[in-house]
Amino acid sequence: MLFNPRPKTSRADLFGRDRELNLLHENVDSPIIIIEGIRRIGKTSLLNVFLNEVGIPSVVLDLRGLKNNYGFRDFYNILAKGLSNSLDKLIDVLRGISSIRIVGVEVELKWRGRDTISVSTLFDYLNRRRVIVAFDEAQRLRGPRSLELLDAIAHAYDYDKNITFIFTGSEVGLLYGFLGLDNPKSPLYGRYAFRLTLDRFPRDLAMEFLKRGFQEAGVNVPMNIMEYAVDVFDGIPGWLTLFGNEYVRGNKDIGRIKEEAIRIALEELRSIVSERGRRYAIALRGVAEGANTWGRLKAYIEEGEGGVISSSVLHNIVKSLEDLSIVKDYKFLDPIYEEAAKLL
User: Measured between alpha carbons, how far is 98 from 94 in angstroms, rounded to an integer?
Assistant: First the structure.
């Protein structure tokens, strides 16, 4: 179902991404694949469908819940879940690793002590099969343990030729900052990666998505309502899916649906502000209210705080917001987040 809010798993339900899927298939032998794009653009769905089609055993690590300054216990818990989900396809390899316990349908990993298995060693074992290891929202791996993980990935890049790594990321600047492909200090410096950027649907494709989704659900929707939804949600598949799902379920007030989307975005912005400080709320609100140049944003923040902000601090704020893929060139990349920022 096109309007199912869960990530898609089959090509039949993944609308408008045949070109991107085909590119992934063509580049499946690349040692590193990067799938980037703003929030709700469909990266996880694309990844799921590709992995289901390609016929190669895969380990998917869902990093969205990984906390800042995570420890190896946190990472190994996610790693164990990923291995457990792929146990049926990799059990022959995992059974041969003395440091791993298989209890029923779950994999247990020790994160410290004598029987600990390093990530690098685990990759060496997985290399006995053709395997894809996918890191969903990989920028969450930034932190005190990131160098150890990058060392393990760099080792596998050089010696484990049967492993392909896929990294997805919504916060694109942070993703590339973590990987360090262009950073001489990074273990992955200079390594080749196939990069795939997911864009929003153009207007005609967004309209076709809504038409097909409503037709599938057996619901007639006036053309002007669909056109307005495309304008409001700017061709972003996740928001269009939210709109379609709500409308099919009986909520035909597009204003209320938009308010729900803004509420979701506002919670995410508040989380960012809580991590980075109140000044980010002022900066986000300023950009949303038209502070679209360096000078205007500087004046807006200074007016809001009643003090002077240094150029270096302002530079760091703007760069952080761009790294988070929220704004670019003093404009929001998603109009729903722009509306949400006005409420900070």
Answer: 9
pLDDT at 332: 98
- List, for residues 97-110, the tens digit of each pLDDT value: 988 999 999 999 98
Across the range 77-82, mean pLDDT stands at 96
Q: With helix as H, strand as E and coil as C, how does 147-187 read? A: HHHHHHHHHHHHHCCCEEEEEEECCHHHHHHHHCCCCCCCC
Of 23, 21, 71, residue with least CA distance to 46: 21
Question: Is the model's pLDDT at 317 over the cut of 90?
Answer: yes
Map residue 38 onto helix, strand or coil: coil
Rounded CA gap, 99 and 111, in Å?
A: 10
> What gap in Å lies between CA 247 and CA 244, rounded to an integer?
5
CA 319 to CA 301: how far, in whole Å? 16
Query: Angle, to 10 degrees, between the axis of helix 203-217 and the axis of helix 237-248?
Result: 30
- % of the chain beyond a pLDDT of 90: 94
Give per-residue pLDDT as tens, 167-211: 999 999 999 999 999 999 999 999 999 999 999 999 999 999 999
Helix (H) or strand (E) holding 86: none
The residue to which tokens 């930034």 are assigned: 142
- Cα–Cα distance measured from residue 324 to residue 341, given in angstroms and rounded to the nearest whole number: 14
Pairing of strands 194-197, 327-328: unpaired
- Measured CA to CA, the distance from residue 317 to residue 280 in angstroms comes to 7
Answer for the pair 12, 248: CB distance below 8 angstroms, yes or no: no
Give the CA dihedral 19, 25, 28, 30, nearest 10 degrees: -40
CA distance 168 to 98: 31
